[in-house]
Design a protein that fits this description.
This protein is of the alpha/beta class. The protein has three domains: about 150 residues, Orthogonal Bundle (N-utilizing Substance Protein B Homolog, Chain A); about 45 residues, no CATH class; about 210 residues, Vaccinia Virus protein VP39 (Rossmann fold), CATH 3.40.50. Helix content is about 45%, strand content about 15%. The strands form two sheets. Strands 5, 6, 7, 8, 9, 10, 11 and 12 form an eight-stranded mixed beta sheet that branches. The chain has a four-stranded antiparallel beta sheet with strand order 2-3-1-4, covered by helices on one side. The longest helix has 21 residues.
Length: about 450
């Protein structure tokens, strides 16, 4: 039997250890390999770290990984404090096991001795790390003793975001707002849904509240498919900010509408519900399968097209929605891996793609037609600056400013009349009801 298989068999005999090993491996896949957190837990994940785990262990693994990645800045700082000489080069992957254990000790309801013991056992399983099991034991016991000190540090929020992102937010939004954004990312995200009709009624059935924009925010995080109305297609999961761009486009019955980069389909559903003739375009055939399944559940129709939006050709449309690929820094609360998988250079690369999408949309918009461009990014290069450059290139387009009378809170509208939400908007004593994804959207009208 191969040595790796022997180690897996040994690990399987120790309750809780397979989940901890899987968590450490997935943290490494995210931090070192740039994998997305959600993809790591997908049934077809490559590499698969969950084989052989039962549902309870998979849930535990996901809890550890999510907290570890959300709090990675602080955890790395704490481990650096405790590892005065750093980790031995030949045992570098020990870092991910230590990160997983530290997440449990600091932020999860796990017994200290269990977290320490399992991390030590994990170190002993690997020939390269077996000699450092004593180091692991000492570091984690020290961490447990100093827990309150480190939690006080966590409360100050000084290490919540990667330095390059924290610096950007302070520069663009100011010191206080930059800190408020980073602090909001440390909270578990709310669950918002868009409903076909009767938001008040569905808020009561789903134990939620109706937000000022019409979305319903749930108090609990029960399994989605078990909630009332899901199987009947009465609603779909969609962050309140993500629901705004399609409302700003305001498609009318029988208008020809193009949803660029459409998957997974929340905005397509909104426009199909308005009885527009929607073309849902995306370059990923796999993601479009998910979109088609969502539309089938919701009993809504759209034409599905696989293709590169930057080169797409068709007859002009009455309206186009561009939900542009972006750095997604506005969704870090929902996708904490974004903080650690995105790099500064990605913003420039993505901004170039966004420019191409806007240029293509301009060609595909009929005279008198309109475009809504949006991105779930906090970075001005992917929002405000993108639209300013587009209007300079295209004098036949002008901005259609948003009016608070359209159901958009005045605080969400910037001085140019565009939508700009920030994660700390909508404060609430109950964290489950607070905040919103960071989003930008601008509405543009082509001259008749």
């Amino acid at each position: 039997m191969p040595a790796e298989a022997v180690r897996e068999a040994e690990a399987a005999k120790i309750p809780g250890l397979p989940a901890r090993l899987a968590a450490a491996n997935i943290i490494g896949d995210i931090v070192q390999g740039g994998h997305r957190l959600d993809e790591c837990f997908a049934p077809n994940a490559v590499p698969s770290r969950l084989s052989g785990l039962d549902a309870r262990d998979v849930s535990l693994t996901r809890s550890i990984v999510t907290v570890a990645v959300r709090r990675l800045g602080l955890i790395r700082y704490v481990l650096a404090e405790l590892l005065e000489k750093g980790l031995p080069r030949q045992a570098a992957r020990l870092e991910f096991s230590l990160i997983a254990a530290a997440a449990q000790i600091l932020f999860l309801d796990a017994a200290d001795h269990a977290a320490v013991d399992l991390a030590v056992r994990a170190a002993r399983l690997e020939p390269k790390t077996a000699g450092f099991s004593g180091l692991v034991n000492g570091v984690l016991r020290n961490l447990a003793r100093r827990r309150e000190e480190f939690l006080d540090l966590a409360a100050r929020g000084e290490h919540d975001a990667p330095p390059w992102l924290a610096q950007r937010w302070r520069k663009h939004y100011g010191e206080d707002t930059g800190r408020a954004i980073a602090a909001m990312h440390m909270l578990e995200p709310p669950l918002d849904v868009s409903v076909k009709d009767d938001p008040e009624g569905w808020a009561e059935r789903l134990d939620g509240v109706v937000l000022p924009t019409g979305s319903v925010r749930l108090r609990s995080h029960a399994p989605i498919s078990e909630l009332p109305g899901y199987e009947d297609g009465e609603w779909w999961v969609q962050d309140a900010a993500a629901a705004l761009p399609a409302r700003l486009l305001a498609p009318r019955p029988d208008e020809r509408v193009l949803d660029m980069c459409a998957a997974p389909g929340g905005k397509t559903a909104q426009m199909a519900l308005a009885r527009a003739q929607v073309v849902a375009l995306d370059r990923s055939a796999e993601r479009l399968k998910l979109l088609a399944a969502n539309l089938a559940r919701l009993q809504l129709h759209a034409e599905v097209a696989v293709g590169d939006a930057a080169a797409y050709q068709a007859q002009p449309f009455d309206a186009i929605l561009i939900d542009a690929p972006c750095s997604a820094t506005g969704t870090i609360r929902r996708h904490p891996d974004v903080s650690w998988t995105k790099k500064p250079g990605d913003i420039e690369t993505l901004a170039s793609l966004q420019t191409k999408l806007l240029n293509r949309a301009a060609l595909l918009t009929r005279a008198g037609g309109r475009i809504v461009y949006c991105s779930c990014s906090l970075e001005p290069e992917e929002g405000e600056q993108q639209i300013a450059a587009f209007l300079r290139r295209n004098p036949d387009f002008r901005r259609m400013p948003i009016d608070p009378g359209e159901g958009v809170p005045e605080a969400f509208i910037n001085r140019d009349g565009d939508l700009r939400t920030l994660p700390h908007f909508w404060p609430n004593e109950d964290p489950r009801l607070a905040g919103i994804d960071g989003f930008f959207a601008a509405r543009l009208l082509r001259s008749a």
